[in-house]
Amino acid sequence: MNSYEMIVILKPNTEEDLKKDVLQRLYDVINENGKLGEVDDWGIRKLAYEINHIKEGNYVLINFEAEPSIIKELERRSQITDAIIKYLVVKKES
After folding, report:
1. Which of 32, 77, 92, 94 has most Cβ atoms within 10 angstroms of its Cβ?
2. What percent of the chain has pLDDT over 90?
C-alpha cells in the first residue's frame, strides 16, 4: 500500500450535515481497500483564484494508505459531487 494525501475544497456555504456526508462517502472508498489516517479540517480560506464566482472554500486534508486502484474511484466521486469545488490526490514519498 502507498501513502497518499488528498485535499478537498468544498463550497463555503455547504451545510455541516452535507459536508459530513460528502466526506464520509470518500472515507468509505478509502476504508474498502485501505486505511484512513489523520483528517485535518482547515476551515474556510480564501482561494488562490476565483472558481465559478466562488472566492472562498472549506479545505479538508485527508491522509490515507491505499492501493493505487482506489485513486480513480476517489477522483470519480469527487468529480460528480456538487459540493466539491476542487480536489487533489498526491502520493507521499516513503
Report:
1. 77
2. 84
